[in-house]
């Protein structure tokens, strides 16, 4: 009798532990998703106001500098949206259909690689403004700016689409009817693809770093020989290039992300979900949250109009109260 009671008590304890563990995992998952969604909404609220300001005033979409900036804002919105959808999907249902998964992965890879290329083009535009101002209107035309954006997307699409072609060549069509855990590594069919990814990212970031260092040094050199009125513009351009460097360093977190996989597998399996979330937050959420603050709020024109809209929206209630009061007195 005592033995039976003991076994029953032991079974109930195991059930309680299982229920407690499941509850903690669900709470942890909901907390992580809530934090990600909150940061996503806050960031895209600011991005949305920047986009609204951009299209509200012709002075922005007729200037190549702001065209490149708003392209980066749209790119960040796409990148954050894809990353958030993948993160929430994998939290709820770890497996995803291969066609849907690869569609999201191509978007994620392309928008991630677009960011450093866009920063390089923005740095070159600032270099032309300071070092060759008389030819800026001829070199940095709107047509060439849109062509540069098209080239950025074309180059960004190469790595993801090339991996897709390799999968088509190696796997049967029945593979695309299956479901997989949606990470890019699941589509690597040869060691050459791993090395290709490393070489491409190394080439991308090396070229962008060379462009940013070159433009920064040339602007610093131009500032030394500039007049007092030109020194102010040169100083602003130099600080802008420095901010490009900071943003590029944040973007480079995506470069080291694949190497963390080897470290993750050496750690306890209970840590994996939390570590993947920390990497997701640092690599995708944080840099895109800082981007509109670094560029949009720092720019005088954007800040002036953005603040003006906020003041107008908050002041809309006050006139209605005053009108009611006046009509009452009359």
List its traits.
330 residues, mainly alpha, two-stranded antiparallel ribbon, disordered N terminus, disordered C terminus
From the alpha-carbon coordinates, what is the Rg to the nearest angstrom?
26 Å
> On the 0-100 scale, what is the average pLDDT?
76
- List low-confidence stretches: 3-12, 317-330
Number of helix segments? 13
Give a short summary of the structure.
This protein is mainly α and 330 residues long.
Walk me through this protein's architecture.
This protein is an all-alpha fold and 330 residues long. It has 13 helices and 2 strands. Strands 1-2 form a two-stranded antiparallel ribbon. The longest helix has 55 residues, at 2-56. The chain is globular. The relative contact order is 0.10.
What's the topology here?
Elements: H1 2-56, H2 58-61, H3 64-92, E1 95-97, H4 98-131, H5 136-139, H6 142-170, E2 179-181, H7 191-224, H8 228-251, H9 253-256, H10 260-264, H11 272-296, H12 300-315, H13 317-329
Antiparallel strand pairs: 1-2
Helix pairs in contact: 1-3, 1-11, 3-4, 3-6, 3-11, 4-6, 4-7, 4-8, 7-8, 8-11
């Amino acid at each position: 009798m005592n033995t039976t009671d003991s076994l029953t008590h032991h079974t109930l304890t195991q059930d309680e532990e299982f229920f407690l563990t499941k509850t903690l995992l669900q709470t942890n998952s909901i907390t992580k998703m809530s934090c990600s969604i909150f940061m996503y909404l806050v960031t895209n609220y600011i991005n949305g106001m920047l986009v609204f300001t951009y299209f509200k005033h012709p002075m922005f979409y007729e200037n190549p500098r702001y065209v490149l900036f708003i392209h980066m804002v749209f790119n960040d919105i796409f990148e954050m949206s894809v990353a958030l959808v993948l993160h929430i999907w994998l939290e709820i249902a770890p497996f995803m259909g291969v066609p849907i998964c690869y569609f999201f992965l191509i978007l994620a890879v392309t928008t991630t690689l677009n960011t450093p290329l866009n920063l390089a083009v923005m740095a070159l535009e600032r270099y032309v403004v300071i070092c060759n101002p008389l030819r800026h209107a001829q070199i940095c035309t709107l047509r060439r700016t849109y062509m540069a954006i098209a080239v950025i997307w074309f180059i960004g699409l190469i790595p993801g689409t090339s991996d897709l072609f390799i999968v088509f060549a190696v796997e049967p069509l029945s593979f695309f009817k299956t479901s997989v855990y949606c990470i890019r590594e699941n589509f690597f069919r040869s060691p050459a693809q791993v090395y290709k990814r490393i070489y491409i990212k190394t080439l991308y970031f090396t070229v962008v770093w060379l462009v940013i260092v070159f433009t920064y040094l040339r602007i610093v050199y131009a500032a030394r020989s500039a007049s007092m009125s030109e020194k102010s513009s040169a100083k602003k351009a130099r600080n802008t290039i420095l901010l490009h460097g900071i943003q590029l360093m944040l973007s480079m977190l995506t470069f080291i992300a694949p190497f963390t996989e080897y470290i993750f597998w050496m750690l306890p399996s209970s840590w994996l979900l939390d570590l993947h979330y920390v990497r997701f937050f640092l690599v995708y959420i944080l840099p895109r949250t800082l981007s509109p603050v670094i560029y949009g709020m720092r720019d005088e024109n954007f800040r002036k109009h953005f603040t003006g809209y906020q003041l107008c929206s908050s002041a809309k209630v006050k006139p209605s109260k005053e009108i009611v009061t006046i009509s009452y007195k009359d």
